[in-house]
Amino acid sequence: LDDAATYRIFADGKTESVFQFESRGMVGMLRDAKPSRLEDLIAMNAMFRPGPMENIPSFCARKHGREAIEYPHPLLEGLLSETYGIFVYQEQVMQAAQVLGGYSLGGADLLRRAMGKKKAEEMAQQRSVFVEGAIARGVPAGQAAHIFDLMEKFAGYGFNKSHSAAYALLSYQTAWLKAHYPAAFMAAVLSADMDNT
Predict the structure, then answer these.
(1) Taking the CB of the first residue and of the last residue of the chain, which one, N or C, has fewer CB atoms within 10 A?
(2) Which stretches does DSSP call E strand in the chain?
(3) HSE of 164 in the Cβ direction (CA atoms, 13 Å)?
């Protein structure tokens, strides 16, 4: 999964008929991000949705050193490093709840679900649990509340990594075929859509 010709298809935005990466907005993001590894494709697929989409410019700038990579707290570096310090996946929200807030895995999943539903009363209770857990781990209350805000803002729209990884792998395979067998690839694409003028 490190074929240079395949990543050139993505970096150049030549993704017509490449699964999940065909739209004009996606092509623009690809040209800015210039993905060079499968993890980039996974993250980009997850971010290209309402909500996380606002983080795309920072993701691209951080990837290429135009913006400093910053982490909301040093304890989060290990789980946010592959996405340049940006929450991209639901799993990252759950892991942050565990690492900073002291949640169990089951409790972190309940938090993720509560964030997605945006129920004010339940969220106030979860905020209190998270902040208290973070304070117990030496995180200042204000910083804990700020991190909770980041997680809450993101989690309502977040995509899970496993789903995005499956999509990105299929996208990579599609682009690989296009890069190495362009005539056969386009013939297959045209044949598959023959009835759709």
Answers:
(1) C
(2) none
(3) 20
